[in-house]
Amino acid sequence: MARFEREAKVLASLNHPNIAAIYGLEESNGIRALVMELVEGPTVAERIGGRAMPVDEALPIARQIADALEAAHEKGIVHRDLKPANVKITPVGVVKILDFGLAIVAQPPGGNADDPSISPTFTISPTRVGMILGTAPYMAPEQARGKPVDKRADIWSFGCVLYEMLSGRRAFDGESTTEILAAVLKSEPNWTALPRGTPSNVLRVLRRCLAKDSARRLHDIADANLELTEDVVSEPPAPRRSGIPWRAAVAACLAF
Questions:
Q1: Is 82 among the domain residues?
Q2: SS3 sequence, 190-256?
Q3: With contact defined as beta carbons under 8 Å apart, do 25 and 34 qualify?
């Protein structure tokens, strides 16, 4: 219960326009509950609906998600379950991240790991090495292996969400959880599924967010946000061939 109360306090500290607000901790008939802001509008999963979103619609959503993650990470909080179904879009286009139920918070300096009131997890039982928590298609490889995670796991999930918005399909998929986790650990996304003309800075962000080695992944979501805020420049078209056949060009030169 001490851990639950601490969760309410930490989430209440995330006062950010792109994170659903926590209004309080209530008790009724011996049951305690977190009271959360009611967020109208569809989830990103509903907005995608199996179809790619236009780049000029997806990028403002991605930037707002990144803003929210940056605010959480600055507080030492890692979401661990970022996915399209946990992101809502209000009727006026404001993005709200929901469900910090699997979030972890950094251990405070000098903290006692055995004290349940300062447990570094927000789950019913403390996370142990080997325990997998999250949603398979959006798990970072280290998370899928049951290893300890940090904010780079959220950066991976952010890449998965952005890829899905742009392509209309999951970056890692399969017919079973086992197949999905195998894809997360071993396979690369189908980069050809992204729309032609996807801006080069967006492709760069996706590849760096989805680096399987966390040491090679973007270390801060703010870096992704900066990249996505740059002027959108599509990949340049392939250079056009000259209309003059090379043999004709050589003959013309020899004539001189």
A1: yes
A2: CHHHCCCCCCHHHHHHHHHHCCCCHHHCCCCHHHHHHHHHCCCCCCCCCCCCCCCCHHHHHHHHHHC
A3: yes
Q: Tokens representing 186?
A: 């071993």
Handedness of CA 246, 243, 196, 230 (dihedral sign): positive
Sign for the pseudo-dihedral over CA of 12, 18, 20, 23:
positive
CATH of the domain at 197: 1.10.510.10
Please identify which residue in the block is written with the tokens 């946990």. Answer: 86
pLDDT tens column, 100-114: 766 776 544 444 433
Spatial separation of the C-alpha atoms in residues 112 and 15, rounded to whole Å: 27
- Residue 188 within a domain: yes
pLDDT per residue over 143-180, tens digit each? 989 888 899 999 999 999 999 999 999 999 999 999 99
Note the pTM of the prediction, 2 decimals: 0.78
Residue 211 belongs to domain spanning: 40-115+123-230
Count how many domains the chain has.
Answer: 1
Question: Would you say residue 81 lies in a domain?
Answer: yes
User: Angle CA(38)–CA(85)–CA(58) in degrees, nearest 5?
Assistant: 100
- Residues designated as active site: 81
pLDDT at 3: 64
Taking residue 129's Cβ as centre, other Cβ atoms within 10 Å add up to: 8
Structural domain contains residue 28: no
